[in-house]
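Table S4 entry, TOG domain-containing protein.
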Amino acid sequence: GDGEAAGPLGDRLASKDWKERKAAYEELLRMWDGVYEPGDPSFAEFDWALDKMVKDANASAMEAGLAVITMYAEKCGNAPSKTELLVPLIIEKGLGARPGTAAAAEGALLKLMEADTPHAALALIYEKGLASKKPKIPPVCAGLYGKALAAFGAPAMPVRELLAGGRLRAMFEHGSAGVRAAAQALYVDLVRWVGEAPLRPVFDGLKSAQQKA
């Protein structure tokens, strides 16, 4: 009947039936919710399924999968090793999806940053997200810089890459109005953390029209 799982969890995680996959994702979520040891063997046993969850063709199953990834990032000591694999997929598949899924994708990205340092994830968010051709994605990615700053503070942020490395300036000059608005908000928040002087060169280099924006 309903809720009665048949067969090994590994097989059900890879089932061709999305309802069975979703139920397996939810079962894995409950399993990891009850794990308190960062090196628990169940992480290595099932982490092969994480990228497949993000690529799940069914929106409802994929959203359940993003919750599993968030839990994995919170509980598993090895989570930072998955940043490179998972972040670009979450950007591409999750951030442009329906609102609930996009919010779950943002939560997963922030949790992966927390598991490691935000640097690696934010570099990927900048490289892959701001260059995305899907119009919804670049503004959300620019906004994630502000959310990461609020969550982790400037000492944890790639401030040098944002300023000297040109990331903030590129956001100000981006073709998307949403990205430019996020850059403006990020600028204001960074001033609170590091003062105006380090940000001056970015501001001076911008077109005067943008300074008045």
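The chain has a mean pLDDT of 93.
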